[in-house]
Design a protein that fits this description.
Helix 2 runs antiparallel to helix 6, helix 7 packs across helix 9 and helix 9 packs across helix 10. It is globular, with a radius of gyration of 22 Å. The chain has 21 helices and two strands. Strand 1 and strand 2 form a beta hairpin. A two-stranded antiparallel sheet has the order 1-2. 65% of the residues lie in helices and 1% in strands. The chain has 493 residues and is mostly helical.
Length: 493
């Protein structure tokens, strides 16, 4: 790497990374205050971690201040990837200081799982952890739900310079150029206004459903972010409450939609706009179809005795899986279902959620584009001379976007294959390797086989945890943002 690349690319990125770390160090003061209030004994670890993170951020800001410049797409990809990895690394400090039995790789896996909203955990005895530590895990998921960079653009004026390139690298879906507002910082604030509003409503609803405020707030953060992190080993089985499950179902369905769509509906005061959006209709269509099938299965096998209980239990399982949330209930485990039904549910995690939602997977809009293209090709065979543009929701999809969708799907499948092969080489059985790679890259967090029986990822070696950590980051940042850093072209001036 020559000096010109360092000056042009690395130094401006480190200048931007400084304020991000300062902000994140300040966020650590939230669990610090909770720990002081609850006297749970973890306040010192958050104080030390905050001081260290803010100090590093200040050093970077001061050392690279003269390299402040307009961000290009090249800078944006590097800022996003380094921000996620750096903040995940900084987030390990409280865990390692309070729980020294966990090394850096284990703690990094845990924090990356929270930030990427994957929800996989390598921790045991969650109820035995201090409230501030459990709250920290949930807070990381809440921050990661909408994206660290979107959040930073919303609150840090510095990142308003060139923020469009950073937002483009971070946001999900193939149609990234659409803006809700003229300025990128206003767009980020608009998204978080919706996100925060749903968060408040979710916390209140959980409390009214019977949760204590502490549980209500923690589960609010992991529901709206669709992360599935829980402070209880039994996840939602701990509550054994239909009312609590119903609240989870409602907000998982809402947060699986495109947040930009929520904003447009709110601004125009017209909920019927949802019915004009093919992606939203596809999302709810998949939920309705799978819930119907699951309800019939529960009634037929006697898992539930009444129709209402069967519908609610089916909706909880379907919505949790399809949205890539990954909440679990021991009474409704995958091991109790036929393999075909389990595979269908797991497959829904790959495509059901909308672009611009807090879920993972390849996104519903990409599937719609592919299905539309198949239909267009069939019509073209019958009418060779007809002009048949590819349209989604009234908008013409360019051939460049369609080509990008195809390439994305190919790389996505190759990434799962490579991840599976890597895990097999490390000692996994083939089925376990595939389901684990799939669970990480879709950010579902629920694997089949031995990991489902174990209930968490505690049995994995450091090498296996490292592979899974990389796959989680890869899936959350939609592949190309990370993979482009491994190309020779990227590192050329």
């Amino acid at each position: 790497m020559n000096a010109s690349i360092i000056t042009y690319l690395i130094c401006p990125v480190l200048h931007v990374l400084g304020p991000v770390l300062i902000w994140f160090g300040a966020v650590m003061l939230i669990p610090y205050g909770v720990s002081l209030y609850k006297a749970d004994g973890a306040d010192f670890v958050f104080a030390q971690s905050a001081a260290a993170t803010i100090s590093i951020g200040l050093l970077l800001t001061i050392a690279f201040w003269k390299f402040k410049r307009e961000m290009t797409a090249q800078h944006g990809f590097l800022v996003v990837t380094l921000s996620w990895t750096s903040i995940a690394a900084a987030a390990t400090l409280p865990i390692m200081l309070y729980l020294p039995q966990y090394g850096f790789i284990q703690a990094f896996f845990e924090t990356m799982s929270c930030l990427t909203t994957t929800g996989a955990s390598m921790m045991n005895d969650l109820e035995g952890l201090p409230l501030s530590i459990n709250g920290w895990r949930c807070l990381l998921a809440w921050i990661g739900g909408m994206g660290l960079i979107v959040f930073s653009v919303a609150i840090l004026p510095l990142l308003g310079v060139g923020g469009a390139q950073i937002m483009k690298a971070e946001m999900s879906g193939p149609l990234k150029e659409t803006r809700l507002t003229p300025r990128v910082a206003e767009t980020a604030r608009a998204l978080y206004m919706i996100y925060f509003g749903l968060s408040v409503a979710s916390a209140i609803a959980y409390h009214l459903a019977g949760m204590e405020w502490e549980d209500a707030i923690m589960h609010m953060m992991t529901t709206v972010s669709l992360s599935g992190i829980s402070p209880h080993d039994a996840s939602f089985g701990y509550f054994n409450s239909q009312a609590v499950n119903l609240v989870a179902v409602i907000f998982m369905a809402i947060c699986g939609c495109n947040f930009a769509m929520h904003f447009v509906v709110w601004r125009r005061r017209n909920p019927f706009l949802y019915l004009r959006d093919p992606e939203t209709l596809g999302w709810f269509g998949v939920l309705a179809a799978l819930t119907t099938v699951m309800t019939l299965y529960f009634l037929r096998t006697g898992v539930e005795t009444t129709t209402w209980e069967a519908i609610l239990s089916a909706a909880f399982v379907v919505f949790s899986t399809a949205s890539t949330t990954g909440y679990t209930n021991p009474d409704l485990a995958y091991a109790m279902m036929p393999p075909a039904l389990t595979l269908i549910l797991m497959a829904s995690a790959a495509f059901a959620t909308c672009a611009g939602s807090t879920g993972g997977g390849i996104r519903m809009v990409r599937v719609i584009i592919l299905l539309k293209e198949v239909s267009r090709e069939f019509r073209h065979l019958l009418m060779p001379n007809a002009v048949l543009p590819l349209k989604v929701g009234g908008y013409v999809v360019s051939r460049n976007i369609f080509a990008g969708v195809c390439v994305y799907l190919i790389v996505w499948m190759l990434s799962i294959a490579a991840g599976s092969l890597s895990l097999m080489i490390s000692g996994f059985e083939p089925i376990d390797a595939f389901s684990t790679a799939y669970a990480c890259i879709t950010n579902l967090g629920l694997a089949l086989g031995s990991l489902e029986s174990a209930g968490n990822f505690a049995s994995l070696s450091n090498i296996q945890l490292g592979i899974c950590t990389f796959l989680m980051l890869l899936g959350r940042l939609e592949l190309f943002t990370v993979l482009i850093l491994f190309t020779r072209t990227f590192w050329r001036h």
